[in-house]
């Protein structure tokens, strides 16, 4: 495998950034500084970046239905439960693709494929993500219209989104709304609803591209199929 692809798959950096690391003399192979961008990493080669060994495992991809109250991280210095605690039987060193807030549940992908992660999380690829939000207040066409026009929140421009009102409860003054976005800024969905006067009470991600949680209970996970991975990669590359 070409050296930049090896580093990307190992989660070190994108292929382009990996080439920059090589040209900067930060990458060694078998204790020798690597300056050949076309070098093919062989079985048994010891690859290091800034003196830290890099291991490239066979890529794996998992789909998790994340519960609320779990951190989207590989570790937590406060001792809180992380998504890796839920995938204890997985031997590979996986990590989340993007993140869901501590109090947000739903679809989360975990992998050890750095190149796949970069592809999924780069804003230009515009992969649709669907969220189901229970909000305070009565959602309607008027107060949701700004979501479809694009917004600026905390100085950041938010692209237009699509919505569907799924349920309204006048007695409890709440609504359930499906919102489709393709970005992934911190607290984006919560901030969008807050901006239109509908604070989020409960939030879950139900879909990521063509990937859904069908058949997967909260807290459960499964290995993704090659077809599912290919569909996401193709969707990102065709944007």
TrEMBL record:
Q: What class of enzyme is it?
A: isomerase
Q: Which residues form the RNA-binding S4 domain?
A: 1-58
What InterPro entries does the annotation carry? PsdUridine_s_RsuA/RluB/E/F_cat, PsdUridine_synth_cat_dom_sf, PsdUridine_synth_RsuA/RluA, PsdUridine_synth_RsuA/RluB/E/F, PsdUridine_synth_RsuA/RluB_CS, RsuA_PseudoU_synthase, S4_RNA-bd, S4_RNA-bd_sf
Q: What is its EC number?
A: 5.4.99.-
Q: Which Pfam families match?
A: PseudoU_synth_2 (PF00849), S4 (PF01479)
For this entry, list what GO says about its biological process: enzyme-directed rRNA pseudouridine synthesis
Q: Which GO cellular component terms, listed alphabetically, does the Swiss-Prot or TrEMBL entry include?
A: cytosol
Q: Which UniProt keywords apply?
A: Isomerase, RNA-binding
GO molecular function per UniProt:
RNA binding; rRNA pseudouridine synthase activity
* Stated family: Belongs to the pseudouridine synthase RsuA family.
**Protein name per its UniProtKB record:** Pseudouridine synthase
- Organism of derivation: Lactococcus termiticola
